[in-house]
Amino acid sequence: MTRTLDWDEVVQAATRAPSIHNTQPWRFTAVGDRLEVRFDPQRSLPVLDPTHRQQVISCGVAVEFAVLALRSRGHDVAVDAGAQDDPDHLATVRVLGDRPGDDDERVLAAAIGARHTTRAPFLARDVPTDLLEQLQADAGGLGVWVADVSRDDAELVSVLLLERAEQAEASDPAYRAELEAWLRTDPESADGIPVDAVPVDDPAARPSNWLVRDFLVGRRTAHAAAPVADDAPPPVVERPAVLLLGTMRDDRTAWVQAGRVLGRVLLRLTAAGLAASPMTQALDWPATRARLTAELSLVGHPQMMLRLGWPSTPATTTGRRPVAEVLTTAD
Ligand SMILES: Cc1cc2nc3c(=O)[nH]c(=O)nc-3n(C[C@H](O)[C@H](O)[C@H](O)COP(=O)(O)O)c2cc1C
Known about the structure:
331 residues, alpha+beta, 2 domains, four-stranded antiparallel beta sheet, 10 helices, 11 strands, binds flavin mononucleotide
């Protein structure tokens, strides 16, 4: 007999998933031993993500967090992609029965509550090569590739396109208005990005090649950085690894799979004491995304650019909508 299913607990874990601008664009329906995961078009980002690609990736992370929460509680599960009749129905997580928990998945599930996006500079300490290899191995099973772009020519191309995209975004009033609509000054807010979670300093002024998204573009004077004393020590130069995740196809099923792998990657990093922040500016726009694909001779489609390293400060927790708002139970 299958153990009792506590869908509230599972959805609680699923909703700790990261999502673009913390839009949390998901809806869950529990039907007996199945959890259906849908995209919520009410929470879209028409300027930044008109195809909903990044939001579907976000839902894919939520799918994987639900899978890990179930497996760590001793349930055997399978994931079915979408439903033909409803494009917003992205995946169904089916409980097949009981299965003794796997240690690795328990470790990953235990990291769900501790994972946060870390945009602060990382320490000047290399990311271990064997960890990068493990992340690449994790991804293969779900048909997603993971490439390290923090070396040689790949770094030059990626850094250049990231800067181009960031500049284009910063000068686009529609982009800025949308970004501002998801910034939150109330740290208790249930969605959006709290100002405390984004860098106060100008990301372009950091001693790092990798430009994190500037959430305070146009508002910098209101959040001016403290002056630097003449005798202050030189800033630490971070040494992040930067990964590109990609898929062969570029449709909703591929985006869900990319999200599932992203979820595993983030949890594996958290469990190892590292942290990460997506930097998706170059993938936001078709032109820079296509150029990245061409110039790096990528096979398939880049879906996520992720900066990772050793955290120098604890990250800020972001809010989530209550489970009751996103979970419906059906007979
Ligand atoms: C598909 C996707 C794209 C994202 N893009 C960026 C980005 O370009 N820059 C950034 O700083 N954070 C990015 N994020 C991180 C979200 O802002 C973050 O997950 C959200 O604010 C919730 O915070 P948390 O991850 O700390 O829980 C992205 C997340 C996802 C899932």
